[in-house]
Amino acid sequence: MKSSAKVFVVIIVLAGLAVLFSAPFHSDGLSPQWGRFAAFLILTMIAAGMHVRLPRITGSMSVNLPFILLAVTQLSLFEALVVACSSAVVQYLSMRKRVELSKVAFNFCNMANAVAVAHLIYNAPVADSGFGVQTLSLAGAAAAYFFLNTAPVAIVIALTEGKNAAKTWADLFLLTYPYYLLSAGMAAGALAISSNPMWELPLVTMPLVYGVYRSYKRYFAKQLEGEPAASMTAVAGR
Predict the structure, then answer these.
(1) Which of 24, 22, 74, 15 has the alpha carbon at shortest distance from 44?
(2) Torsions phi, psi of 234, nearest 5?
(3) Mean of the per-residue pLDDT values for the chain?
(4) What is the pTM of this model?
(5) Lower CB density within 10 Å: C or N end of the chain?
């Protein structure tokens, strides 16, 4: 890895560690519900193991995003970070035979940064708490998560492989934006059914997530024929 890429990774890791260490002091808004937290954690990690390689980019996309967005809306900041960052580690480990700690740390902390900002946006105090405002807050949180989760990955890939960062991010955008949009829609639908989804709702969502995974896997497999194996970093939570 080039020195510029190393410096960027260190910045992301330090920012993520700062978020993780401060999260317990900013997680008073919701009372802990351990059954719901455990359900989100287990289902998100299962979904993280269902990932597909992305064509033309050294990275992958997993189908854990609907659960991450629901965790942002339903769990405390610390709980949402545990759920999302654990899934990032699961995705990375499920892809690699050889573990590189720098890449694990990057994916873990990059996820922490994205989730923290998404959680902040969704839970920002507003005068009206109706479903329309909830939906707009969720859209803002999903957009922030999308940018903060993909832009650092595009930058580190560009720095490592000597590519143009803007073009790399544009490729990520074109490949993953439909899935982000679908995931935000699934999360909004879950909130429409219940403003306080329990463990049953994420469980019911799993068949839809699996269907998306099988569709993407079949679609990308045709484009990946003849490409060399990926070697850089996971695009966690996409």
Answers:
(1) 74
(2) -80, 145
(3) 79
(4) 0.80
(5) N
